[in-house]
Structure formats: C-alpha cells, structure tokens
Amino acid sequence: MHYSKLEHFTQPVVLIRSNIGNKFAVMKWQIALVVLVLLCHMYLPKAWAQDTSQPPQTDTTQESSVNEAEESKRKKTVESQKEIENDVSDRQTVPQEESQIPELTPEQKKAEELFVQGEALINATFVKKFDEALLLFDQAAKLNHTKAKEYVAFAHLFGDHLPHNVSRARELLEELAAIGSPRAQMGLAYMYSSGIHFNSSQAKALVYLTFGALGGDPLAQMALGYRYYAGVGVEMKCESALTYYRKVSKTVADGVSVSGGVAVQRIRLQDEAESQGTNSPLLDEDLLQYYHFLADKGDTQAQIVLGQLYYQGGRGVAVNHEQALHYFMTAAESGNPNAYAYLGKMYSEGSPHVPQNNMTALQYFRKAADKNNPIGQAGLGMMYLQGRGVDKDLTKAFRYFSLAADQGWVEGQLQLGIMYFSGLGVRRDYKMAVKFFNLASQGGHVLAYYNLAQMHATGTGVLRSCNTAVEIEIVRDAISLQLYKNVAERGRWSEMIMDAHRLYKEGHVDAALIKYTFLADLGYEVAQSNVAYILDRGESNLFDRHETLQRALLMYGRAASQGSTTARLKMGDYHYYGYGTDVDYETAATHYRLASEQQHNAQAMFNLGYMHEMGQGLKKDIHLAKRFYDMAAETSMDAQIPVVLALIKLALFYGVADVFNKEVNSI
After folding, report:
1. Which of 498, 445, 482 is nearest to 280 (CA)?
2. Residue 393 has pLDDT above 80, yes or no
3. Rounded Cα gap, residues 88 and 166, in angstroms
4. In angstroms, rounded to a whole number, what is the distance separating the alpha carbons of residues 152 and 190?
5. Residue 465: inside a domain, yes or no?
6. How confident is the model at residue 580 (pLDDT cuts 50, 70, 90)?
7. pLDDT value at position 550?
8. Residue-range definition of the domain harbouring residue 363
9. What is the distance between the alpha carbons of residues 331 and 342, in angstroms, rounded to a whole number?
10. 117 in Cβ contact with 136 (< 8 Å)
11. Tell me: the pLDDT tens digits for 350-359?
12. How would you label 231-252 residue by residue, b for 16+ Cβ within 10 Å and e otherwise?
C-alpha cells in the first residue's frame, strides 16, 4: 500500500453485498427497523428529542433564527459529505452479480490480440513504438475493435503516425459516438469546438463534452471543467468546475508514483523565440553529448546528472532505466550518496531492467542515509512506513521523513503531511499536514497538490474556499495554488505538449497547431498562448488572415485570463490596432492597465503613457503620461532608451524641459 493520497476521503461509507442470501437478511432488518420507527412515532412524545431539563424557549423569533442557522449548517455539512461520497463512489466499484460473458468469435479474438500487442508497444517503459502500434490498431479497427478504432481515429485527426485524414477521423468518431464511446464523444466535441476542417458549433461541442464526461472520459471531464472554470460557452460555476477537475485529478493521482511522475516541459514558443533558445528547458544535444563524454571519463557529477535524466525523463530525454542503472552504478563505485539513494529507489520500485528487491533497496537507502542524504532518508522512511524489508515502525518512519524534510526533500515533506493528516505515528494535526503539503507542492509534487485540493475542497483543516480549490481568480496579489487544475494538467495527456513542440520545431506547423488547439480546449494556458502565437505570426495555412486574427484574439483572451502577461499585452495591442476586431482604444487601455497593475509589465506602462500623451482612450494628461513613462523605465532596463526618446518628445512639444532634464539625470 502506498501512502501517497489521502485515503481518509476514499473509505467506503456503505457496504453493499450482492449475494441472494444477504439480500433477504437485509430485508428482514429493514422491516424490523421500519416497525421500530413506527412504534416510536406512536408512543413517544413529540418532544422526545428535546432536553426536558432545559427551560422552554419563549422567544419564537430567536428559536426560528437558531433553527435556520442549524439548518444552514446542516446543509453545508451534507454538501461537504456529498463531495466526499462522490469521491468514494468514483473509487468504489459495487460488486455485481455474475453474468455470462459471451464467447469471442475468432475474428474478435484476433482483433483483441492485435490491440493488446499495440498497447504493449505504446505503454512500454522505455522505447515506445508508436508506428508499429498504430499499424496493429489499424488492423484491429478493420476487425471492428472499438478501442482500436478510437486510437486510429485520433491518429488520423492529429496526423500522428498515420496520415492526417479529418474525414476518416470524423467517420470513425461518429460511428463510435453512436454506440456510446466517451472518448469518441470527446473527439467530436473537439472537432465542433475548434472548427478545424469542420463547421464549428459550440452547442454541439458542449453536448458531446457532457456525454463524454458522464461516460467517464477524463479528457472530456477536463475540458468541461475548464469551460465552467473560465465561463467558456457556459456560465462560470466554481462548484461544477470543482466536480469535474476533482474527477480528473483523482484519475491522475491514482496513476502517479510516489516520486511524482515524469516531468513535462511547458515551452512557450514566444518566450523561446525571444530568448533565442538560451532559456529553453530542452537539453541541447551537444550538451547531452558533453555529459556523456564527462561521464565516460569518470566525472561522478556528470554520471549522476545522466542517471537522473534517464531515470525521470524530461528536458527532451526519454526515460531509460537501463541507462539510468548503468550511470548510478558507476557513480556508486565512487561512494556518491545520491547514486546510492537512486539505486535504492530503482530497486524499491522495480522495472523490467531492475527487478524489485526490498533488501537491496534497503541496503542502498541505508548507505545514502548514513551520509545524511535526504533521498536515502525518505527512502528509509518509506521502508519503515510500509514494513518492506524491515518491521513496520511508524516512529522511525516519521524520524527519517523529518530528516529528509528538514533538508527540503519533497518526498519527505509529502509523507510527513500524510502522517500528520492520518495520525500515523504522530498526533493528528491538520495544520501541520497543510504546512507540509504546501512545502511539497512548492517542489511540484502532483500528490501534494492533490492532497491540498482535497483538504481545501472539503474544508478539512482549512477554511473551505471554492475559489482556492479551483482557482477561479487567476491574477491576484498572492499566487493561488493550482490544486485540482494543476493536478489534472499533469496527466499522461500532458506529454502532447512536447509532441506539439517537436512538430513545430520540425516545421509541421499545422499539425502542431491542431495538437495545441486540442490542449487549449483542455485548459492549458501554455497551449492557448502557443496557438495564439502561431496564428499571430501567420504561420498556419488553415484559415484566412481575418479568421486567423480572430482566433488569435480568442486564444490570447483565454491565456490572459489565466495570468499570461504576454497574452494580456497582446489583447491590448489587438484592440489598439484593430486586429481581429474593431479598433477600441478604451478596451486596449483596460488591458494595458491590467498588465501594468497586476503584472508590472513595462511595455504596458509605456503604452499607457503614450495613450495619455495622445489622448487615445484615456484623458489627455501630460503629467500622467510622464508618470507612466517613468514607471516603465524603473521597471525594465530595456525600456529606458524608449522612455528617454518619449521624454524628449514631451519636452519639445509640451514644454516640460525642466522635468525632462531631471529625468535624464536620474537615468
């Protein structure tokens, strides 16, 4: 058992038995209970529930007020309990009476074999053979295998390892949706929503999304959650968004290991272009080769870096546990504590290349912990917590997690939060649980976000706040936690962000745009920003220029509402110049002011200064113009030269030379 999520929220509240004998027993008890209630109603006084030792209430107004308050409190409690019970119902499967499973025909057996072989290829831990898998799925689809058809439909839709064929994708999705496939309903919802090679219909998109979400498709749930979260095509409803995001985050959390899962780089194309690749989260191929060169020469630090890259994946490097084991083993020969710790993790978790072995894991964790390594300390804590290779000892587990947490190790912080929440080996303390979950979430751990979301959503240990749990207010003084939405966006589907980026860098702009658009519908701000960036630059041939700018404006708007400074600035530019909309100086000024006040953007400040100077959408005011120019110069070094030029203009045309001279001297 992994103590990773808050199991407190997932315990069954009702035990349902399915055998016939127990049904009769339950009926007998139900009859007896009904008779007892009737007898009580007949013979007990109506005020049986009141404490007769207390004097009767004479103030009927006060009594009514108290009753209303109690009823309101009861309703809130019931609502909170329903949320927990919903969580329970999603996890628990009610036993059903055994039914006869129809025997598969030879054709169905063949289709299932092909499908299983294909899934094995794409779910491989290391090298995923998508091309081979899709060929197998295509064969299975021709034999009428439903799941295989879903894979083939989306492959044609995105042009992924099969030719881009929207007509074929639509044909398959409509066929599957007609028989109730939630994933196909999600696919059709995307096609109607995006309007790419398709007549757009937001109403139909919403219908298909709703059916897909009710059918349990996590992508449909996520897309619908985002719509309620941001008010896209529906009324903004925090509780509805919370419901859908909770379902998705639960799915994600169930599939995440205690180490937090594979890292996915969220690359904004505009940021990458402006930095000319210097700040790219992807590892340069030359740098990777250099690490290999150093590692082969015996550089222990390079060996550790490569081991971590191959163990966790990320930065454009695929997971490869065979390579990770090699580099950790090599570094361990030099007595490196990080190498010991990661070897412990690998043997503790097990993989096709590293057989699971508790005793070997324990040995490596001890070696690392003896050198005060926090990864090894957290690993030992897990061994004692779960009784793997040692007797279960919660006190020792708590001690080792504390040692790791004191050094800032995220897994130690996460497990301390779990122990404080559940009262494992320590007195239950929800405030301490929140503290350690917060610390672990700052380290980016998915399960820490999930557990915090559970506590905020149900008001456990914190004041219940729907706005905190779902993050309706994106731009605020303090950065609010992403919680359920953050967890949902770390599902396996987030790997599509890297796929889209790869396609874009390879020159397949339209294919990248289609994937980014799909992710944008799921609520990924980075995808919305990238769709807008591609359209803004006119790099796609899917739409005419006017529609391209309209779509770019729409995506910039959605990204801006999620806190993107660049998108907010672009919203101002589009309304100022009339790109994709009518020229509207007042609206442009509103967006610039938001970017200036909430995000301290120097360009927005400069633009506000110019608009005050020219009287465009704002009152013409030279002093306010100068104030905004000054603010821009103080905020960014890059703004200082444009500000000097603007002040020269003010001095020449408006006679404010004395003020200008003072400003020049200060710069």
Report:
1. 498
2. yes
3. 39
4. 16
5. no
6. very high
7. 95
8. 348-439
9. 11
10. yes
11. 887 888 999 9
12. ebebeebbebbbbbbbbbbbbb
Q: Which amino acid is at 26?
A: V
The domain tally of the chain equals: 5
- Answer left, alpha or beta for residue 232, where phi above 0 means left and psi between -120 and 50 means alpha: beta
pLDDT at 25 over 50: no
Summarize pLDDT for 279-316 with one digit per residue, the tens. Answer: 555 556 667 788 888 888 888 999 999 998 888 776 66
Give the domain-ending residue among 163, 182, 216.
216
Query: Which residue type is seen at 153?
Result: A
Judged on CB neighbours under 10 Å (0-12, 13-18, 19+), 132 is middle
546 and 635 co-located in one domain: no
Q: CATH number of the domain that 360 lies in?
A: 1.25.40.10
Are both 202 and 122 inside the same structural domain? yes
Task: List Cβ neighbours of 495 (8 Å cut-off, separation of 6 or more).
Answer: 262, 264
Q: Which residue is associated with the tokens 């509103």?
A: 590
Q: Higher-confidence residue: 83 or 18?
A: 83
Q: Are residues 198 and 128 in the same domain?
A: yes
pLDDT recorded at residue 289: 83
Residue 572 lies in a domain: yes
Within this chain, do residues 309 and 400 fall inside the same structural domain, yes or no? Answer: no
Q: How far is CA 189 from CA 21, 29, 81, 233, 623, in A?
A: 46, 48, 32, 13, 52
CB-based burial label for 87 (10 Å; 0-12, 13-18, 19+): buried
Q: Which residues contact 141 (CB under 8 A, 6 or more apart)?
A: 148, 149, 151, 152, 172
